[in-house]
Give the backbone structure.
Amino acid sequence: MRKLVFVLGGTLILVLAAVALSRDAQASRQAAPAANDSLLAPVLSASDTARLKGPSQPIFFRHDIHAGQFKINCQYCHYSVSVSSEPGIPSMATCMNCHLVIGGTDSTAQREIKKVRDAFNNKQPVEWVRVHYLARHAHFPHMRHVKVMGPNACATCHGDVARMPQVFQVNNVRNMGFCINCHLERDVSRDCSVCHY
């Protein structure tokens, strides 16, 4: 495996085995059928997003491909989730760690990856449509939940994102009852000041 190091805009970016990942993905598609635990994402184009659950995004980012098929851990992109109240939206530099090299295998993927590259080159953030949000008077410290429940804690609230072509809200996280039930199941404090302060 080769490591390519790029210095872009003063930020050190490591691209770890991106070419190997792309070759492995192509080889696995041509090889024997995938194992039962493998998630093969359906072929969809950006024009298909209107019929999918959840809001359409400016770039058709496929969680089912990134987190499902390629098994990229949530915390690779949402890197601040273990140290912050907010999980954070990945920076364009994070996307470019792979997409400096990986350009897509079909015309739809190539078009969407071009949007990522153009935004990065033009130093323009992507204006993602938020899917999950809490009321202003509620406080949800992501880092505490990830610390206690582990790296797969995300699915508790967000559902099986690794199988979602387009992320949608599975649970009503704005409903206090959802949180209270989770705390009851895990015998965690339900004192008002835990979430409201």
Summary: The CA atoms of residues 49 and 56 lie 6 Å apart. The first strand starts at residue 3 and ends at 8. The beta strands are 3-8, 11-16. The first helix runs from residue 18 to 30.
